[in-house]
From TrEMBL:
This is N-acetylmuramic acid 6-phosphate etherase. A lyase-type mechanism (elimination/hydration) is suggested for the cleavage of the lactyl ether bond of MurNAc 6-phosphate, with the formation of an alpha,beta-unsaturated aldehyde intermediate with (E)-stereochemistry, followed by the syn addition of water to give product. It comes from Streptomyces violaceolatus. It catalyses: N-acetyl-D-muramate 6-phosphate + H2O = N-acetyl-D-glucosamine 6-phosphate + (R)-lactate. Specifically catalyzes the cleavage of the D-lactyl ether substituent of MurNAc 6-phosphate, producing GlcNAc 6-phosphate and D-lactate. The keyword Nucleotide-binding does not apply. Gene3D superfamilies: 1.10.8.1080, Glucose-6-phosphate isomerase like protein, domain 1. The lineage of its organism: Bacteria, Bacillati, Actinomycetota, Actinomycetes, Kitasatosporales. Belongs to the GCKR-like family. MurNAc-6-P etherase subfamily.
């Protein structure tokens, strides 16, 4: 096996990261009963929400900045390698069915491309040039947001994506799990959720991955709330693409309006299954085309459309 000159430097870098720290008190974990290991792991996982809570002001500031740009037509783009990249792709892929986002409105980039979702792509995470190429393929604009995600906070793909995006005037967010990270420093909004050493040394798919999932959930969900994709805590922009979601659509309309089942069916038929439009039809007593016009004029915000309808 050959080694390249940067390996000793990389090893010394990793040794300074809390996510990579060795915990001697767990050195005998493989000899414990399964239930004891499960209790240890569960106890470790329970510390993650508190670590996220410490960064809520930074998370909220990033969300407000993202929402402003997305309201102008910008995109939310996640960029990461390995577990971090997969979590970004996961969050992005769940936005269309949950919030009826348009194609390409929320994007997950993973170093090495789609194949890297299920296979380790050798060397992809070490290439900032690859990140630049992936962003160039999206024709990045100043209204877009790029969120670099990396547990270590030093992954060249994530750091490179943020640096390049910032040079083009896009909003940048750096999500890392170590203090004083290059990723957070490179971004306009740095978010460092320090989750500490892992149960298995360096296995950042554990606590660090859980923290990243929680923060990405917040970034997308609260941004969509700010954009009017919800009515209260109801997913009024849900895309009814299967029978379960069609049933959920009817239930959401019922919860929002209290209308009878027959009236709900008529409203959904009149609005081609659009939940938000159907709610407006029922609550403001307007027809389908009027509901569509009012929502378009209010930027998709149901409360504003209802206020306009009711004068």
């Amino acid at each position: 096996m050959t080694s390249t000159p940067h390996h000793p430097d990389l090893r010394s870098q990793l040794e300074t990261l809390t996510t990579e720290a060795f915990r001697p008190e767990l050195a005998e974990i493989d000899q414990l009963p399964t239930l004891d290991i499960a209790r240890l792991m569960n106890g470790e996982d329970a510390t993650v929400p508190a670590a996220v809570a410490e960064r809520l002001p930074e998370i909220a500031a990033a969300i407000d900045a993202v929402a402003v740009r997305m309201a102008r037509g910008g995109r939310l783009i996640y960029a990461g390698a390995g577990t971090a990249g997969r979590l970004g792709v996961l969050d992005a892929s769940e936005c269309p069915p949950t919030f009826n986002t348009g194609p390409g409105q929320v994007v997950g980039l993973i170093a090495g491309g789609p194949d890297a979702m299920v296979t380790s792509i050798e060397g992809a995470e070490d290439s900032p040039e690859l990140a630049r190429a992936d962003l160039d393929a999206l024709a990045l604009t100043a209204d877009d947001t790029v969120v670099g995600v990396s547990a270590s906070g030093r992954t060249p793909y994530a750091v490179g994506a943020v640096e390049y995006a910032r040079s083009l005037g896009a909003l940048t967010v750096g999500l890392a799990c170590n203090r004083d990270s290059a990723l957070a420093a490179a971004a306009e909004h740095g978010i460092e959720v320090v989750t500490g050493p892992e149960l298995l040394t360096g296995s950042t798919r554990l606590k660090a991955g859980t923290a990243q999932k929680l923060v990405l959930n917040m970034l997308s969900t609260i941004t969509m709330i700010r954009l009017g994709k919800t009515y209260g805590n109801l997913m009024v922009d849900v895309r009814a693409s299967n029978e379960k979601l069609r049933a959920r659509s009817r239930r959401i309309v019922a919860l929002a309006t209290g209308a009878a089942d027959d009236d709900i069916e008529r409203a959904l038929t009149a609005t081609d299954g659009e939940v938000k439009h159907a709610i407006l039809v029922l609550l403001a007593d307007v027809d389908g085309p009027t509901a569509a016009r009012l929502l378009a004029e209010s930027g998709g915000h149901l409360r504003a459309a209802m206020a306009a309808a009711l004068g």
